[in-house]
Each structure stands twice: as C-alpha cells, then as structure tokens.
C-alpha cells in the first residue's frame, strides 16, 4: 500500500477531541468478529484508494499530497485509525487560471463491534428458528436471481428492439440473436438454480431442528460439532437480533457509543456511518428509529450487502412485525429539515448476486421491483421511494459476492472515499466515470463466465477416454517415481507408494483409466487449477483498470482481456463436443456431429461476446418524494461506451495521463512505447558556459 509519509510527522499519540474533519464508523456483519477485524477490512482499502486519488497527477497532485497515517490503535477499547490526507482543491470552472490550493483533511476511522455485546442463543433455539428464516432467505434469493438472470435479459431484448440502430453495437438481426440466446440460456440456468435451492430447502427443513439432539450421539458429536458450532456462530447473531429484543438492543448500543465517540472527535465536523450485512440492519434501526442523526453529526449512511429488508426489526410477542426503513428515514429527514437540522444521505450498495441483500432497500416488493429496474432501464414508471442505490459487480459468483465488497475498488470503495474527502475534492467527468464502471462490469462478468467454463472443463475432461487414460498414466507415473525415490534409501520399500493410487485407477481396461473416485479427484484438481489461473488473470485485468496511472485505451483493453475468456470458453466447447463423440450411444452420425458442433460454436461465441453486450447498472438517485423529481437528477441521455470513448473528456484525460508517463525498467518502457506511443525525451546536456 502506498502511503505518503510527510516530513515532520510525529509519533503516534492519543487523538484529540474536536480536531478531525470527518469520522468514519464501520459496523460489521453477522458472525463473530475479532477486535479490529472490520476496522482493518475497510480502513486499509479506504486509505489506500484515498492516497491513490489524492496523488493523481491529473488533478494537479504532486509528491506532497497523499495520506499520512498518525495512529493505528488496533487493540484498545475502541479500535481506531487516524490519518491526514492532503489533496489539490477542486478548481472553480469559472476561474480556470486561479492558483492551486491544497486541502488538508483529518480522518478518524472507528470500529463498532457488537458481536460480543450479548449472550448467544443455544443451538436448539437457533436451529428451530432457522427453518422459517431459511425459506425466507431462499425466496428472496430466487426473486433476485429471477430479476438478474431472466427479467434483465428480457428487458435488454425489449430495449434493443426499440433502440435506434445507431445505438446498437451490431446490426439489429445479430443483436436480436445475441439477446435471444441470452434470454434462453439464462432462463434454463434459472430453472436449474430454482430446482437446486428448493430441493436444498426441502432436505434441510426436517434436518435443522434435529441437529441439536443428534449431538447427544457421541460419534455424531465428534464429526459434526465443529461445523455446527461454526454455523450457530454465523446465524446465531441473526436469530438473537430477530428473537431476543434485549440482546438486539445491546447490539444497537455499541453503534450508539461509537457514534458518540465519533462526534467527540469531529466536534462540528461530519460523521459517516458505514455498515455491512446484519450490521446494516443494526445501524439503520439504531440511527433512524432510536437516535437523532443530527445530534451525532451523522451526514451519511452507507450500507453494503445490507440485510435491512431480510432481517427487519426485532420481534416482540403480541406486536406487529412490520418494518418500513425507507419511510422512517424519510420521516426523520423531514422532521430535521423542519427543525433546521441537516438531513442524512443514504447510499446502498448491493451486488447483483448477493443473496443476503437481494436487491434495493424499499418498504414494499412493488417498489423494490421498480428500483431494481431503474438500475438498468429507468423510466418514469420506475420512480419509487428509497435511498441512492448502487447495483455493483463483486465477483459474479453467488457464494462469494456477499463478503468481498471491500475488494470492489471502483464501485464501492472509491465512491465512499470521495464522500469522505468532501466537496473540495476534484470530481470525475461523467464519460470517464462511466468507462471505468462499464469496464469493471465487463471484467467481473468475464470472471464469472470463465469460472463456469472452468467447471465445465473440469467436470468433463477427466471422463473422456483419452484424457482419462492420460490422467491414470500420469498418476501411476508419479506414484512409481515416488516409490523409486523411497527405494533408494536402504531398508525402505517403495512398493506401497506405487500401490497408493490403486483406488484412483481402474486397471481392468486397456489402457487403464481413472476410476469414478479418480475422476472426482482429477476434476477437483483441474477445477482448482483453472479457477486459480482465471482469478490470477482477472486480478491483472482489474488492476489495469483500477490502479494503472495510465491505463490502456478502452478498445485495446477489450481485445486483450477477451483472449483469456475466449480460451476458457472454447476449451469448454471442445470438451463438450468430444463428450458427445465419446459418450453418445450408439455413435452419432456425421450429420449430427456437425449440427452439434455448430450449436456449441454458437453458444460459445455468445458467451465470449456476452459481457460486451450486457447492460451496466447505473446509480439510482435518492427519492424522498413522489413528485416526479429525484433528489439527485440523473443524466437525461443514457451513456454508451462508444460515445464515452469519443468524448473530449476521456480523450483529454488519456492524453494527459500519457503525457505524464515516466516508465522505469525495460518492461514498463516497452509497454509505454507499444501501447501509449511513448517516446523518450531527449536528455538536455548541461551548458559548459558559466554565466557571471
């Protein structure tokens, strides 16, 4: 992490009250959180990105700008990181020749850790509660996946049918073909996911209540207790929040105390409350239902992966369980405005595959559908009450999306950083911002599609006749080699090593092939290798968008980054075709092989180009009234990648970044020459003439 060390910085000391410009309070999600865990999880990427944007030469920065860390108290009663950031002040467009100014802003980042503020529920209590909660979670997940996979594909097709030809990437017929294939494939995939999740729920429904009594059986306790305790630790907090009002109040008290400390640190400055997952439900309820945000100087609430709608409020016997967080937020802001107090802005980030947040935060399902559609194809009919919504792409993998918001630099971390830096920080032009967001979407969709292709290759390849024979030979060769090395040691017999792979190899055929267990093991190893390589390549492509001071021009980036995706998808297409050839009984005729090859090629081509055609989400503005006017007015014309690339703003910034290039090393110099047209500047020789 690049942190600018300023001359004369003092050693760490206790922070003084009233000396900070902004305090950032982070609240963790469900599960046991260690001290400083959530603080480090967010403070490190926040400060790293803050340093990067503050030192950007495009905004006029130099080596005197950036972040200086003063104190990292990670083991105190209230863990905290304090820092100062210096950056060039945003110039007034009306006075372009005004002298540059530097802004110095002091930041305190605090942790609100509520996971140890209450006694957890017992296993039996948690598992009895888990069954209805599980079905609620499954229902919301299926609703999200239906929107992401099927509804979005349908809306894209309809939008392209009515769009002018000039706005389409390909001729209308080819564009329709891509959209139609996407809709069909996505619908089939959704049906598979629906069946899997419903069957999973049906299987777990009778099992969950029995898990706690089964621990009375000694052998079951030895095998399963660690796993079940981990499960209780994860979801037990959620059960306590919903079922035990006193314990839920203890969680909220931690947030209140952290806000009170943040208010002391900033004096008249701003407090920014930031919460993830269950912590978002805790923070939202505490801030708007129990506290007056103005008393704590809270100017902004940011929620990520928020389980606000999923968890709602605590349940009291005899009380209605209705919860309307958006109405409460709007009413609180209205009352504060009437009293002359500032309102609280609310930004919500939800990953499109995150099953816990499952979309926008609203008070009704109808409003949720409207705000979800507004993230892609806004119309006057999609206006609904709610906070500023950011649909983001984390990993394009449902099992990972919920826990990695801190790694989404462009769509989550940087917007948060810019809020912390305040209105004096230079803004990004709309075309440049759109390009980065769109490239991140393409990159993350490529990661997801390549992962699916890797799983297809791994599942099929070890089962093909030739590949199975090769894997069996390779395993036996490795085992024989190990046995030979062991036998070199006097007194040791290496024959056991040679026979250790017998379970994985079926020696009954000629040549030997993998056994069913060997097939599973080989598939797991191939999948691990391909997924690791895919993630490694994706990190490089993402870095070129996020961290390169002079990134590739967009068209070159699109071509280069499509190569790994194409290799994975074509590899999957090849193994699927060979599986038809190898496994189909009776053997298919030539005509059928040709037809299958054409169909597979069409699907493969669609998968390769799909990230380029799919729509990117846009920010849905805050909406506190239904008078037809958003709190933040969106642009009147939808941005497109071609228009953004051709814009003066993007071309000007790219030229300026290239002008600032100063490559160091052979590889950096080669890259700068071939991709940015960089040429070495002539070295000026010092004059031998002395002027007196």
Instruction: Enumerate the spans where pLDDT stays under 50 for 5 or more consecutive residues.
Output: 1-11, 686-692
Determine and state the CATH class of the domain at 22-32 and 73-79 and 88-118 and 244-427. Answer: Alpha Beta
Helix/strand order, N-terminal first = EHEEEHHHHEHEHHEHEHHHHEEHHHHHH
The major sheet is characterized as: 8 strands, mixed
Beta-strand residue percentage: 5-15%
- What is the overall silhouette? globular
Q: What structural class results from the helix and strand content?
A: alpha/beta
CATH architectural arrangement of the domain at 22-32 and 73-79 and 88-118 and 244-427: 3-Layer(aba) Sandwich
CATH topology of the domain at 22-32 and 73-79 and 88-118 and 244-427: Rossmann fold
Task: Estimate the mean pLDDT confidence.
Answer: 84
DSSP summary: helix tally: 19
Transmembrane segments: 144-163, 183-211, 452-475, 517-536, 557-580, 592-609
InterPro entries: AB_hydrolase_fold
Keywords: Membrane, Transmembrane, Transmembrane helix
């Amino acid at each position: 992490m690049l942190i600018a060390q300023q001359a004369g910085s003092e050693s760490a000391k206790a922070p003084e009250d009233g000396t900070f410009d902004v305090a950032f309070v982070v609240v963790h999600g469900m599960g046991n959180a260690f001290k400083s865990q959530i603080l480090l999880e967010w403070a490190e990427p926040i400060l790293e990105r803050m340093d990067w944007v503050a030192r950007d030469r495009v905004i006029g920065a130099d080596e005197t700008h950036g972040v200086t860390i003063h104190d990292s108290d990670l083991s105190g009663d209230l863990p905290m990181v304090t820092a100062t950031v210096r950056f060039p002040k945003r110039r007034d467009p009306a006075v372009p020749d005004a002298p540059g100014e530097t802004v110095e802003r002091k930041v305190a980042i605090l942790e609100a850790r509520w996971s140890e503020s209450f006694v957890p529920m017992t296993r039996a209590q948690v598992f009895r509660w888990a069954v209805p909660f599980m079905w609620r979670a499954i229902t919301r997940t299926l609703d999200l996946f239906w929107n992401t996979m099927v509804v979005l594909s349908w809306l894209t097709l309809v939008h392209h049918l009515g769009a002018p030809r000039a706005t389409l990437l390909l001729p209308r017929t080819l564009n329709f073909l891509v959209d139609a294939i996407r809709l069909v494939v996505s619908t089939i995939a959704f049906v598979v996911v629906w069946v899997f999740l419903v069957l999973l729920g049906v299987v777990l429904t009778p099992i969950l209540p029995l898990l706690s009594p089964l621990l009375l059986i000694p052998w079951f306790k030895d095998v399963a207790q660690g796993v079940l305790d981990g499960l209780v630790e994860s979801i037990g907090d959620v059960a306590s929040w919903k079922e035990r009002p006193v314990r839920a109040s203890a969680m909220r008290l931690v947030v209140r105390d952290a806000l009170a400390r943040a208010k002391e640190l900033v004096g008249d400055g701003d407090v920014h409350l930031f919460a993830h997952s269950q912590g978002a439900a805790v923070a939202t309820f505490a801030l708007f239902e129990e506290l007056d945000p103005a008393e704590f100087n809270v100017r902004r609430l940011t929620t990520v992966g928020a389980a606000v709608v999923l968890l709602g409020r605590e349940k009291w016997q005899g009380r209605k369980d209705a919860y309307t967080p958006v109405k409460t937020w709007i009413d609180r802001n209205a009352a504060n405005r009437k009293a002359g107090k500032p309102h609280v802005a609310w930004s919500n980030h939800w990953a499109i595959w995150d099953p816990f947040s499952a979309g926008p935060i609203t008070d009704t399902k109808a409003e949720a559908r409207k705000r979800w559609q507004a993230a892609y194809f806004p119309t006057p009919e999609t206006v609904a009450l709610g906070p500023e919504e950011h649909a983001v792409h984390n990993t394009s993998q449902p099992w990972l999306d919920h826990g990695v918001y801190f790694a989404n630099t462009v769509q989550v971390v940087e917007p948060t950083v810019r809020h912390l830096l305040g209105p004096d920080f230079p803004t990004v032009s709309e075309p440049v911002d759109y390009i980065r967001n769109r490239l991140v979407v393409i990159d993350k969709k490529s990661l997801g599609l390549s992962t699916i292709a890797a799983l297809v290759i791994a599942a099929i390849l070890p089962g093909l006749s030739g590949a199975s024979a090769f894997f069996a030979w390779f395993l036996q060769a490795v085992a024989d080699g190990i046995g030979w090395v062991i036998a070199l040691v006097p007194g040791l017999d290496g024959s056991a090593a040679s026979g250790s792979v017998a379970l994985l190899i079926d020696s009954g055929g000629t040549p030997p092939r993998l056994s069913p267990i060997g097939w599973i093991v080989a598939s797991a190893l191939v999948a691990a290798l391909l997924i690791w390589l895919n993630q490694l390549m994706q990190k490089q492509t993402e870095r070129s968008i996020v961290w390169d001071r002079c990134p590739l021009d967009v068209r070159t980036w699109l071509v280069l980054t499509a190569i790994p995706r194409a290799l994975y998808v074509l590899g999957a297409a090849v193994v699927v075709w060979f599986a038809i050839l190898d496994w189909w009984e009776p053997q298919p005729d030539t005509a059928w092989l040709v037809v299958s090859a054409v169909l597979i090629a069409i699907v493969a081509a669609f998968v390769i180009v799909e990230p380029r055609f799919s729509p990117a989400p846009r920010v849905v503005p805050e909406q506190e009234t239904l008078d037809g006017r958003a709190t933040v007015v969106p642009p009147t014309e939808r941005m497109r990648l071609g228009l953004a690339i051709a814009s003066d703003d993007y071309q000007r910034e790219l030229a300026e970044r290239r002008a600032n290039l100063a490559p160091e090393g052979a590889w950096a110099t080669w890259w700068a020459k071939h991709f940015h047209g960089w040429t070495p500047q002539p070295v000026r020789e010092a004059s031998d003439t002395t002027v007196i």
